[in-house]
Amino acid sequence: MKVALFVPCLNEHFYPQTALSMVRIFKKLGIDVEYVENQTCCGQPGFNTGYFKEVIPLAERFIELFQDKQYVVAPSGSCVFMVRRHYEKLDIAKNLKEAYEQLKNRIYEFTEFLIDVLKVTDLGGTFAHKVTYHDSCHLARGLGIREQPRKLIRAIKNIDFVEMENSDACCGFGGTFSYKCRDISIEMVKRKCEYIEKSGAEYCVGADPSCLMNISGYLKKNKKEIRTIHIADLLAESLNL
Amino acid sequence: MKATPLKTKKYAKKAVKDQELKKALLSATASTVESRQKIINEIPYWEQLRQKAHDIKKQTIENLDKYLEQFESNCSKNGIQIHWAQNSEDAQNIILRLAEENNVRTVVKSKSLTTEEIGLNKALLDNNIQTFETDLGEFIVQLMGQIPSHLIIPALHLTRKDIGKLFSEKFGCEYTEEPTELLDIARTKLRELFLTADMGISGANFGIADTGCICILENEANAHFVTSLPRIHVAVMGIEKIIPSLDTLPYFLKLLPTNATGQKISTYVNFIGEPSKDKLSEGPEQIHIVLLDNGRSRILQEPSLRQTLFCIRCGACLNSCPVYQQIGGHAYGWVYMGPIGINLIPLYLGLSVGRYSPSLCSLCRACQEVCSTNIDLTENVLELRNRIVRTGYNNKFEQLGLSLWAFFARHPLLYRISSSMPRILQRLLPKGMGFPAPGYTRKRSLPPFDKKGFRKRFYKLTNNKREY
């Protein structure tokens, strides 16, 4: 089995470690990994701001690049949601429509891929800390992925997993929303961080780099001790990879 | 038409700083969300119910002309007079004419967002017709000189203290913040009004086509008084409020109170089917229904936006919305607010006036999960954002920025070169520190750019092979 990596922009520029953790986990599971050269952005920031026309060429090149891959996996729910659900709304070239229909069924979010495709729950890792989990909007409500990350977390030995209040409340990022409506966005992340703190966890686990960037940015600026960690990094760390 | 955009950005910025407002918003929305959830937990077929309502509304809206004709003809048979209003002005004029013809001096109103939409209170008051809201929340909001801040809970933004102060100022009574005492004060005032008013004006939750009657749900019995005590009853109803038949009503009777207030059933369900036939029978002598278009038929023509006409104004999307929870209803700048408001504002008032409304959304999709009629609210917001961009009502710097971004993202080599710039600049900053971004990083930081980026690191790991 071979997996093609779909590397979100935030992972390329800010959090390469997360995507590398994903690579190491796949290797440990005996799965080959491929980096698709020339991949850039799936188009999500533009699409979500209303620039549909500008995003069409990005969607088309994404489909062309990934169309013959058996499995495409990304460590982000919102990027997968963009391809799986939102490319449909774009007026893409007719000759790519069929390739897209097939790609839609072969693109997966990381935890979804582990649980639903590979049927792996327990990777055998250990992590002796108290953690909580933040449900990203596009992951939970968009793709319906709520249980997969929790199963993976619970399977880690010695981990103390607690649910926070309103775990699926939006962190306030929302792409360009975080800039265009920054006052509201900041109040939203503040409230999210209050829920995280109240859980008493040392780590807030997430599966979308954008939420984690927003949450950790607020925690760091406000000198909170709680740390955020992507689930791929948590799994890699639990396995000493 | 000259169209000045609503000052949504300004209002929202102000509202988000109001700590008292935030407290009121959080406690009110959280308690409604909680009681709603409790009831839903007991309804195993809740999701099917939402979909059923969606399907009924879809079928009705797609055949609206047929159902409206049927509604009109059945109402007329029952002795109810139907008036068609193309816009707010039409609707105002119809009601003012009815008031004049019947020598109306005093009007009592029960809660109706549609009358807020057409600015009816102002029109009546400007014509020297005394007009009183009778829903407790609306009564309070009217006394304050405001409009409702929530579809269902008009005075959600006010605290007990605010209301106590208001009543003692307006009525000269002793200050109290005891809810039962406040209620008594309001009740005494309202009873007088019900008995002296010449005309009662209401909205309508549902217009039932096959029987030619309207249905109004409420908890305070004020709508019952408004529609039965004065000699004339006028109901203002958007044309999308039609449902095909009485058989289809029970689905909505279950959905609406659960979603709106977390109640199993509304305290009162009024059916209004005909005026009183003679002096011995109860009810008003005349019943008029003003069917309001006000942009609805224009939306009907657009399949991708049509779902907004399925809304039954339950307000559940407001309570679930993390943006509404921070800013409240007034910040939206018009009578509709929250997730449904940001959809309706640009549709009803035009893209130019409502250009900022669809920005008030982090695309979290919480609203869709609760919507009574399963409207794809978030997808609708995206479509509206797209239209605002395409019609040129967007910010030109944003356009330039995103066009440049799209250009670079189409050219991988340029994309890589351009992203190496911040990587180099990053070296000038202390370790672990991200770039400052005006506005964004005021109360939160950005992470530092990675020195190499994933691509380089991957090739290092694999000795320049694409496969590993």
For the structure shown, list the relevant keywords.
heterodimer, A: 241 residues, alpha/beta, Rossmann fold, 2 domains, four-stranded parallel β-sheet, 13 helices, 8 strands, 12% strand, B: 468 residues, four-stranded mixed β-sheet, 10 strands, 49% helix, 10% strand, elongated
Architecture overview:
The complex is a heterodimer of chains A (241) and B (468). Chain A has 241 residues and is α/β, with parallel strands linked by helices. Chain A folds into two domains: 2-117, no CATH class; 130-238, Rossmann fold, CATH 3.40.50. In chain A, 51% of the residues lie in helices and 12% in strands. Chain A is globular. The model of chain A has no long low-confidence stretch (mean pLDDT 97). In chain B, helix 2 crosses helix 12, helix 9 (160-171) crosses helix 10 (179-196) and helix 16 (338-349) packs parallel to helix 18. The longest helix of chain B is centred in the N-terminal third of the chain and has 23 residues, at 19-41. Chain B contains 21 helices and ten strands. Helices cover 49% and strands 10% of the residues of chain B. By secondary structure, chain B is an alpha/beta fold. Among the domains of chain B are: 38-297, 3-Layer(aba) Sandwich (Rossmann fold); 408-461, no CATH class. Classes of the chains: A alpha/beta (241), B alpha/beta (468). At the A-B interface, helix 1, helix 2, strand 2, helix 3 and helix 4 of A face helix 17, helix 18, helix 19, helix 20 and helix 21 of B.
Shape designation of chain B: elongated
In the sheet with the most strands of chain A, the strands line up as 2-1-3-4
Could you estimate the helical fraction of the residues of chain A in percent? 40-55%
What is the third-level CATH name, the topology of the domain at 38-297 in chain B? Rossmann fold
Residue windows where pLDDT falls under 50 for at least 5 positions of chain A: none
Shape of chain A: globular
Distance between the termini of chain A: 21 Å
Integer tally of domains of chain A: 2
- Oligomeric form of this entry? heterodimer
SSE order of chain A, one letter for each helix or strand = EHHEHHEHHEHEHHEHHEHEH
In whole angstroms, how far apart are the ends of chain B? 62 Å
Rg of chain B, Å, rounded: 26 Å
Q: How many DSSP-defined strands of chain B? A: 10
